[in-house]
Specification:
By secondary structure, this protein is α/β, with parallel strands linked by helices. The chain contains nine helices and 17 strands. The chain folds into three domains: 203 residues, HUPs (Rossmann fold); 54 residues, SH3 type barrels (Roll), CATH 2.30.30; 96 residues, Translation factors (Elongation Factor Tu (Ef-tu), domain 3, Beta Barrel), CATH 2.40.30.
Length: 375
């Protein structure tokens, strides 16, 4: 049995994870990370799902006491702001749609927390993610999807390195959500029936646009909303208020449904068009992570998800050098927002192969050329 640090967020999944590992005979140390000034920015106690709010910390400590687990609170607010929040706001300022949950997992939960765990002499870090890790061949660690496919969170874990996967534990990955709640009730955990957090933890009740306007006011410069042919339809108050593919909340009227098909940063213009204008046959990825090793030169035939909750679609991923790859969709798909993650799975949806980050819009011709040279 080994010493394991469990990241305890105050939710039912991480609570049960700590309890299960303790029952297995491990020396469990529960750690709640203070990542954001929730009590000051959103009231803390009035919003129980706020990340690291006083309510969450109290619940985590209560679970630790019930389970006979040591519990500590560590302050990672500066690291979280510099590595996750700053990446998020800088991405939006650059016209991207970042995914902070992926960044948080790689840099905080399996980065800073793992470093803290090592200082405590721990050999592993566990969280309440719905995922599994296996080492089926060649001593490489692979992400395996959760038993509860509806709750699977491998999309948010795709970028973990081999070292991080080698020291990761996901105790609830082999359980359904209902089973987790039932097991938590049976153990008398105060978090057993707690509702789940759905939103980005540091945004709060103010909403995305208000948060960005406060953090990067310089990015909110008024400009035109226009059709692809240049017809002006209205005015926007900042490109940060729009994302590729957006249909609702555009503030313009037209004879047919319109979507954001391009954010023209040079002209500070939101360009609208039909859904057909969003369809692509390939997209470029950068900063890729492949758990089974390098992509085969002939390409990897797989299923890909290009946005959280997006459906899996058939594709072939080709290596393009320098940590890049080209995703060729077997059927045209709506272009994903640059800055989002594209994650690959096998045909059985049992294994997550890894993935990469969607490159900036407008790089399709380059991606096409690179794909041709990789063929």
């Amino acid at each position: 049995m080994v010493r394991i640090v469990v990241g305890m967020s105050g939710g039912v999944d991480s609570s049960l994870s700590a309890a299960l590992l303790k029952e297995q005979g491990h020396e469990v140390v529960g750690v709640t990370m203070k990542l954001w000034p929730c009590a000051e920015s959103d009231g803390g106690f009035t919003r129980e799902d706020a990340c690291c709010s006083p309510t969450e910390t109290i619940d985590a400590r209560a679970v630790a006491m019930t389970s006979g687990v040591a519990h500590y609170v560590i302050d990672l607010e500066a690291e979280f702001r510099s590595q996750v929040v700053q990446d998020f706001v800088s991405g939006y300022a650059a016209g991207l749609t970042p995914n902070p949950c992926v960044r948080c997992n790689e840099s905080i939960k399996f980065g800073e927390l793992w470093q803290y765990a090592r200082r405590l002499g721990a050999e592993r870090v566990a969280t309440g993610h719905y995922a599994r890790v296996a080492c089926p061949w060649d001593e490489r660690f692979l992400l395996r999807t959760a038993v509860d496919k509806a709750k699977d969170q491998t999309y948010f874990l795709f970028s973990l390195t081999q070292e991080q996967l080698a020291h990761a534990d996901f105790p609830v990955g082999s359980m359904t959500k209902d089973e987790v709640r039932q097991a938590a009730r049976a153990r008398g955990l105060v978090t057993a029936d707690k509702r789940e957090s759905q939103d980005i933890c540091f945004i709060g009740d103010e909403g995305m646009v208000a948060f960005l306007r406060r953090e990067i006011p310089q990015a909110f410069v008024p400009g035109v909303i226009e059709l692809e042919d240049g017809t002006v339809l209205g005015e926007h108050q900042g490109l940060c208020g729009y994302t590729l593919g957006q249909r609702k909340g555009l503030g313009v009227a037209w004879s047919e449904p319109l979507f954001v098909v391009r954010l023209d940063r040079e002209r500070n213009a939101v360009v609208l068009g039909s859904r057909a204008a969003l369809l692509v046959t390939e997209q470029m990825l950068h900063s890729c992570t492949w758990h089974a090793g390098a992509l085969p030169q002939q390409g990897l035939s797989c299923l890909v998800r290009v946005r959280h909750r997006g459906r899996l679609v058939a594709a072939t991923i080709l290596p393009a050098g320098d940590g890049c790859a080209v995703v060729r969709f077997h059927e045209p798909q709506q272009r994903a927002s640059p800055g989002q993650a594209c994650v690959a799975y096998d045909a059985s949806q049992e294994w997550c192969w890894g993935g990469g980050w969607i490159a900036v819009a407008g790089d399709q011709p380059v991606a096409h050329q690179m794909a041709q040279s990789a063929s």
